[in-house]
Write a structure and sequence with these properties.
single chain, Methanol Dehydrogenase, Chain A
């Protein structure tokens, strides 16, 4: 593979990055952002009273501190902001005071991770049960106590389950579901694995000989049944809390580049992938104790309406907002609004550029790869930008939002901005 194309693939993969279940032991507040994609794993915050107009010079910078190499986003809970960084030959979990940026502690997890497509950890911590759960670039799962920074346990998953690290590094963000913390591994007979929250012991494994891909699983309630939905390198699965397969649908994408997290839309499951694959909305019919998937609509191939490269779309007030990447890891990306009931495009901001997004208070908060923060109204009537500002260097992370403060990072710094009205 030519080096330029490998670089383009690196640009695709390394930020499918991110967790906390509604059944977590700790009740988070509405303003917490305790995992990749926020409290409900869908990129949406319930916060209100956020800026409606662009201040002179953009949102006020609250603090800016050194960080380290990596693609982990920021998780915020109970006044603590956590992210994985790499520096000095180690992968660390870094904990900061969410309001001031002052370092609380820094805990080394494993030695540094190097990869020709980018170095450092990829996944976002999941905060639950008074701890942060992290998954390093080489596939080590660990629990770190939030109050002290003590490393309680760690599991080198490819020591426990013979296999190999994904081509672009392990990018799955852990998810906590009940008493288990779950990650996608891609090892033989352990495509997905659940571990005891307290001890790190294996609770169950699922799947055989399927590549992990780079997506982070989610917990959805479908037809009244709560289930893990995992998007692997070649399929999307529904899995019970004991590791039993409830349903599956094949979804093979070039280079195993299924990266975005599945979304629940009116009882259906939406999945999307780049590499010119496209989007599919799946209906799930309950049959005994299983489900039968069928296609509600799909748009696949080079003419697809929405090809999420490494960004999970936002489903808000009846419309999807997401990034449509043209070609195989190519540079052209359109910001697109889609009616998911019909699969029709409502509007498209052509050549918006690569970025990532979350939503709150009827707005889209977007980070571009150039390091800009862009805020726009979330409306199916057209693209309405409120403002933009360069805040950091090249980044792939989506912003995190907690108590009116927005967090974003690159390979050198972590910055906090005030986005209150």
């Amino acid at each position: 593979m030519k080096s330029s194309f490998r670089y383009a693939l690196w640009m695709v993969v390394l930020s499918g990055l991110g967790v906390l279940s509604a059944t977590s032991r700790r009740q988070v507040t509405a303003a917490d952002w305790p995992q990749f994609l926020g409290p409900n794993r869908n990129g949406i915050s319930d916060e209100t009273a956020l800026l409606d107009s662009w201040p002179a010079g953009g949102p006020k910078e609250v603090w800016r501190v050194p960080g380290g190499v990596g693609m982990s986003a920021v998780a915020v809970s109970d006044g603590t902001a956590c992210t994985l960084v790499q520096s000095g030959g180690q992968q660390f979990l870094l904990a900061l005071d969410a309001k001031t940026g002052k370092q609380k502690w820094r805990t080394a997890i494993v030695p540094e991770f190097s990869n020709q497509m980018g170095n450092g950890p990829r996944a976002t911590p999941a905060i639950a049960d008074g701890a942060a759960f992290v998954f390093t670039g080489d596939g080590t799962l660990a629990r770190v106590e939030l109050d002290s920074g003590d490393l309680t346990w760690k599991v080198p998953t490819f020591g426990r389950f013979p296999g190999k690290v994904a081509d672009y590094g392990m990018a799955c963000s852990p998810i906590v579901w009940g008493d288990n913390v779950i990650v996608t591994i891609g090892a033989p007979k352990a495509t997905v694995a659940a571990f005891d929250l307290k001890t790190g012991e294996t609770r169950w494994t699922f799947g055989e000989r399927e590549a992990a891909g780079y997506s982070s699983p989610t917990v959805l309630t479908i037809e009244g049944k709560e289930q893990l939905v995992a998007f692997t390198g070649a399929s999307v699965y529904g899995v019970s809390n004991t590791g039993q397969r409830l349903w599956f649908y094949p979804y093979k994408t070039d280079y195993d580049c299924n990266i975005a997290t599945p979304l629940l839309i009116d009882g259906k499951v939406f999945v999307s992938a780049g590499e010119n694959h496209g989007s599919t909305l799946l209906s799930l019919i309950s049959v005994a104790d299983r489900f039968r998937p069928s296609v509600a609509w799909e748009s696949v191939g080079t003419g697809s309406i929405l090809r999420n490269e490494w960004q999970t779309s936002i489903y808000l007030d009846g419309h999807l907002y997401g990034f449509d990447n043209v070609g195989s890891a190519g540079p052209v990306t359109h910001l697109t609004c889609v009616n998911p009931k019909t699969g029709k495009v409502a509007w498209q901001e052509a050549r918006f550029g690569k970025g990532n997004l979350i939503s709150a208070d009827g707005k889209l908060f977007m980070s571009t790869m150039k390091g800009e923060l862009v805020v726009a109204k979330a409306s199916p009537d057209g693209y309405q930008e409120i403002g933009r500002r360069q805040v950091i260097e090249t980044t792939r992370q989506a912003p995190s939002l907690s108590n009116g403060l927005l967090y974003l990072r690159d390979d050198a710094e972590i910055v906090c901005l005030n986005v209150k009205r």
